[in-house]
Amino acid sequence: MMQTLTLPAPAKLNLFLHITGRRADGYHLLQTLFVFLDFADEITLTVRSDGAIRRPAGADNVPEAEDLTVRAARLLQEVTGCPLGADIQVLKRIPMGGGLGGGSSDAASVLQGLNRLWQCHLDENALAALGLRLGADVPVFVRGHAAWAEGVGEQLTPVVLPNSWYVVIHPKVHVPTAELFSSPHLTRDSPAITLATFHGGAGLNAFQPVVEKRYPEVAEAINWLSRYSTAKLTGSGSCLFAPVSSKQEGEKILKSLPNKWFGFVAEGANISPLHQKLAIMPTLYN
Ligand SMILES: C[C@](O)(CO)[C@H](O)COP(=O)(O)OP(=O)(O)OC[C@H]1O[C@@H](n2ccc(N)nc2=O)[C@H](O)[C@@H]1O
Ligand SMILES: Nc1ncnc2c1ncn2[C@@H]1O[C@H](COP(=O)(O)OP(=O)(O)OP(=O)(O)O)[C@@H](O)[C@H]1O
């Protein structure tokens, strides 16, 4: 039986994000387009026979019990009654709280990985439903296909997007998602758009005007990146991105990035790097 598995947990971008309404429970109805990046955290899972879930290495400042990887493992244990445990090592590369979905992606990789290591045999629908209990962004990472999303982000329609490279910038500012969703200044009644109108140039990030106003550092970074290409916020920020024609063009732009910010170039992926890896694993574990 396989005992250890190392899996990527990729970042995502929201290529646009509109808020179209609000549910009775306060959650917002969205339209968004998710694409994955070939820029990822790395999760190493090792089976424990004593049933304990431990996180020997992981995100700084995130207490073990609150880590989405630990919560994902405990949830899977709870619903399947699996007597096995796991050590979960998380090598963080994705800036935290930046709208790149790192925590959600880590959780999805744990669900997919432990489902195999523990041989729980939950199908993808069951894993996505478990993921949704951990966060609105988890299901898309569980499913692993670029997607048009509606509802709170869980109604996913797979799409194939043209290949693209992106410059991503983290202005080193933490923007709390829940605080932004509660802003009175958010546009909450955007008319619904379609993939065709997105490709025709429609699609903004509803959080962007509010974030630019509250966080001048983010506005400054957006202005800087806009000199080179169309810059937009991803998720609720604070990271921003812009499409570029090649890796080289992206690297050239980053050469003049002010030191105070962090940036990287990454390629968009229709199939998540997690699923690319799962697809080449021995069929016994697929
Ligand atoms: C902004 C996005 O990243 C876009 O992909 C997601 O919608 C946010 O997903 P997430 O970080 O997984 O968010 P969650 O942990 O589920 O929710 C954090 C908080 O944001 C608010 N929230 C979240 C999602 C949503 N559709 N409506 C909301 O109002 C809720 O107050 C919630 O308590
Ligand atoms: N494994 C983890 N990695 C990162 N953050 C985690 C993890 N587990 C819990 N968290 C908590 O989740 C918060 C949000 O982290 P994350 O990196 O997913 O944000 P994000 O990229 O803004 O996500 P989103 O786009 O879903 O809003 C962090 O500030 C942290 O407190």
UniProtKB/TrEMBL annotation:
The keyword Mitochondrion does not apply. Pfam families: GHMP_kinases_C, GHMP_kinases_N. One of its GO terms (molecular function) is 4-(cytidine 5'-diphospho)-2-C-methyl-D-erythritol kinase activity. Residues 68-144 form the GHMP kinase N-terminal domain. Keywords: ATP-binding, Isoprene biosynthesis, Kinase, Nucleotide-binding, Transferase. Pathway: Isoprenoid biosynthesis; isopentenyl diphosphate biosynthesis via DXP pathway; isopentenyl diphosphate from 1-deoxy-D-xylulose 5-phosphate: step 3/6. This is 4-diphosphocytidyl-2-C-methyl-D-erythritol kinase. The active site is at 12, 137. ATP binds at residues 95-105. It catalyses: 4-CDP-2-C-methyl-D-erythritol + ATP = 4-CDP-2-C-methyl-D-erythritol 2-phosphate + ADP + H(+).
